[in-house]
Amino acid sequence: METDVGAGCVRAAEGDSAELLAEFRTWLDRERGLSPVSVRCYSKQARYFLAAAGGPDAVSRLDAGRVTAFMVGWSRDCSTGAAKAMVTSLRSFLRFAHATGKTAVPLAGAVPAVASWRLSGLPRGLGSAEIEMLLAGCDQETASGLRDHAILSLLARLGLRGAEAAGLRLDDIDWRAGEIAVTGKGSRVERLPLPAPAGEALADWLTGGRPQCESRAVFVTVRRPYRPLTPEAVRSVMGRACERAGLERRGAHRFRHALATEMLRAGASLPEVGQVLRHRSMLSTSLYAKVDQNALRPLARAWPGSTA
Questions:
Q1: How far apart are CA 246 and CA 199, in angstroms?
Q2: What angle do CA 221, 256, 192 make, to 5 degrees?
Q3: Secondary-structure class of domain 128-248 per CATH
Q4: In whole angstroms, what is the distance from residue 241 CA to residue 66 CA?
Q5: How far is Cα 195 from Cα 154, in angstroms, rounded to an integer?
Q6: From the CB of residue 24, how many other CB atoms can be counted at a distance below 10 Å?
Q7: C-alpha distances in angstroms, 283 versus 85, 162, 259, 280, 307?
Q8: How confident is the prediction along the chain (308 residues), in pLDDT tens digits per residue?
Q9: Pairwise CA distance, residues 238 & 231, whole Å
Q10: What are the residues whose beta carbons fall under 8 Å from the beta carbon of 76, sequence distance 6 or more?
Q11: Which fold has domain 7-110?
Q12: Which residue positions does the secretion signal occupy (predicted)?
């Protein structure tokens, strides 16, 4: 099976696959109860797979060998994170295909796992000077600059994920209580205090930059037709900010790592960090134990021959 999927190939197959992908999205929503962001991500990955497989008509002819060959080819030139995303999405698509009778046998087990070692690396954050450069680079004399400054402020001060910032609704902001309701992974809604700098940036955007439109999304495009920003658009905001600041392109997740590291340096405990970042498992938070210098210092043994 051909696995070299280019943009042209995807566009060519997208129209033919639209009906099947729409059915897949409905299944993910109704049967799996996934969030809209996850549904959109899974559908996008399935579109790549269908383009490589030969379109929706080829689904009934799939076998384990072709599925495995696609995954091996896909993983060859992409990051571990991208490969894992495809594994998860493809397994879901193949479960859907079998559940709806489009494949005669279950094929999800033919998708190989991606080898990786959890907690093997260090979280890569941003320095305080870099964060200030990213924020200062937004031209707050323009509507797009006000919007981008508000987005980056929320990412930096609250550690929001890009999809969480994109999903904010006007009704999620409680100005009187100084709180914001965030819909995170698993569609969990949690209320967070709104720090003054982030609140001021948000107010500036809503009163001085956001166009009046029917959408209830906090962050929308500044040109007609006004549409809610997607998680991909938030990533683009971060990318442009890096370019303006003269930094190499970095992901929005770096703000979460920076916030966690700063909290630990200020004396916060790992459970407190996990609560702020809204981790569902302490295993996710345990990664930051590697940068908790205050806790690690007593464990370090003196260098042989030193007086310390």
A1: 27
A2: 75
A3: mainly alpha
A4: 41
A5: 9
A6: 24
A7: 19, 21, 18, 9, 37
A8: 444 444 333 444 455 789 999 999 999 999 988 888 789 899 999 999 999 999 999 999 999 999 999 999 999 888 888 899 999 999 999 999 999 999 999 999 999 998 765 555 556 778 889 999 999 999 999 999 999 999 999 999 999 999 999 999 999 999 999 999 998 887 789 999 999 999 999 999 999 999 999 999 999 999 999 999 999 999 999 999 999 999 998 888 899 888 888 888 888 888 888 888 888 777 777 777 666 555 555 655 667 766 55
A9: 11
A10: none
A11: DNA polymerase; domain 1 (1.10.150)
A12: none
Contacts of residue 190, defined as CB under 8 A and 6 or more positions apart, other chains included, come to: 181, 182, 184, 278
The set of catalytic residues is: 161, 185, 253, 256, 279, 288
Instruction: Return d(Cα 296, Cα 289) in angstroms, integer.
Output: 8
Q: Are 3 and 70 in contact (CB under 8 A)?
A: yes
Tell me 222's DSSP state.
S
Nearest partner of 229 among 172, 142, 149, 165, judged by Cα: 165
Say if residues 167 and 233 touch (Cβ distance below 8 Å): no
Tokens coding 170? 């006007």
The structural domains of the chain, with segments of one domain joined by +, span: 7-110, 128-248
Antiparallel, parallel or unpaired: β 173-174 and 179-183: antiparallel
Q: Mark out the alpha helices in the chain (DSSP H runs).
A: 7-27, 36-53, 64-76, 80-99, 128-136, 143-158, 162-166, 196-208, 231-245, 253-265, 270-277, 282-285, 293-296
- ∠ Cα 105 40 257 (to 5°): 115
